[in-house]
Amino acid sequence: MDRLPVIDNRELALRLSVPRERWGWEFTAPAPPKPSPVRAHAPQWAEQPPPPQLARLRERSRRAPVLLGVGSAAAVWATGMAAAFGFALWPAVLPAGVLASAGWCAQTMRRYSVARREYQSWRATEVARYEAAQAEWIARVTEHDRREQLRVSSAALWHPLRPARNSARVDVFGGTADGWASLLGTMGASLLASGARMLVLDFTEQRVAVDLATLGHACGHPCSVTILPNNLGLLDGLSPAEIGELVAEAVATLRTADARSAQTRGLDAELVELVAANLIGPVTFGRIAAGIRLLRSISEAEHETALSSEEIRRVNRLLDAVGSSESAREELRFLGGLLSLLDEGDTRPTKHSAVWPSAGLRVIATEDTNARRKDVLDRMVVHRVLHGLRCGMHSGPGSVLVVAGADHVGLAAVEALARHARRAGVRLVLLIEHLRGDLTQLLGGSDSASILMRMGNAAQACAAADFVGRGHRFVLSQLSDQIGRSFTEGTSDTSGDSLTSTTTEGYSGVSVNVSDSVSRAATWSSTTSWSGSDSTSTGRTYARAYEYTIEPTTFQSLPVTAFILVESGSGVRRVVAGDCNPGIALLDRVAAEQVLSNGKPA
Question: What is the pTM (predicted TM-score) of this model?
Answer without folding.
Answer: 0.73
